Each structure stands twice: as structure tokens, then as C-alpha cells.
Amino acid sequence: MTAATHDYFILTMDYSEEYCRIDAPLPRPLDKKCWRAAEGERMGTEYPAGVRLAMSKRHRGLVIPEYIPNTLLMPMVTGKLKTLLEQESGAEIEFLPFALYNHKGRVADPECFIANVIGTREWADMTRTRGEKSIISPGTFEALHLLHLDSAKVDPQAKLFRLNIIPRFLIVRDDLRAAFEQHGIKGMKFTAMGERCRLV
Prior knowledge:
Layout (H helix, E strand, L loop, with lengths): L7 E6 L21 H5 L12 E3 L21 E3 H10 L4 E9 L5 E11 L12 E4 L7 E6 L13 E3 L7 E4 H9 L5 E5 L8
Parallel strand pairs: 2-4
Antiparallel strand pairs: 1-9, 1-10, 3-5, 4-5, 6-7, 8-9
């Protein structure tokens, strides 16, 4: 019996006008440490209790999609998406809780989370991947123009993961994407492997 083959996608945020957005800066002391959650490093006890984040006043959208747009380079999710990820992703994820406040300083959603997918994988096909390489961090990219995976390296069980060359973006397998769509998850966009793009 032939093993099933899958397609993979780069997960990005949907910045539609009706959606709220979370912007920098983060509250102290989180601002000095939360880069770890953008790169897949576990935060553990260094993540403080009672974190409060606010909708950006520069963007008037009030709708909270399940995948929350932000400029902090971190996957942020509602409780609904957290539950779905726990059930369907098969990934090791550290969920870091925060309360989301609206433009008037009132609680809009008391149970949101940074979804820190732990670790990175060396599964990119570097012979076909194109982008702007980082001078500060050799072996990584500042921007992606084209991404391909090395199918011989990809774990066939992996549905959700980060790549070492650009860890701030999550890679999603087609069956997990289908689960998102089946459950009406909003706030996501997808770029296929081999599709020209400019992701920074």
C-alpha cells in the first residue's frame, strides 16, 4: 500500500480591516523575553502570570478571529483554536495565556494564548528555497520569496512545525488546514510550497 502524500503551507495572518490587531510594545518584563515564543524556545516559568494585551488603537477592527493578527511575530489564538490544536495538531505546543482588552480598556476575551510551537526542523530544501538571508543570524532568512521542503527529511507524522531557517512562520499540513476550515477558523492565510511570495 502506498503511503499517503501531503501538501504543506506557510501559515500567515489575515489582516482584514474588521479584525482586531495586537501591536508592540509588550508589557514589561515580557518585552525582553517573548522573542523565545516567536522562535520556538520554551518560556516556562519566565512567562509572567496575569498578562494583559490590548487591541491596537491604530486599527479599529473589533472582531477577534481565532488566529489573532499581531505584529509581534507570534502565533496568538483564542480558546477555540487552542482546543483544536490540542486535538488535531500532534505538535508540542506551549500555550501562554493572556487576556485581550479592547480599545476602551475592557476585557474582550479573557482566555487567549500565545501558541508557542516548540522546536525547529531542518527540513527546508535549500537548493530551491529563495529569500533574503540574515547577516546577523547565519543560516536563517530575513524574508522568504520561495519555500520548498525536502520531502526525504520531513517527518510523515508532522502536521504543524517551524523551520530553522525562518522559525517565526509555522508550516501546516493539508489535513490540519482542512480541520481549520471545517471548524470555521478565521484569521489565517496560507502560502503553498513553491508559491512565490514575500514574507518578512
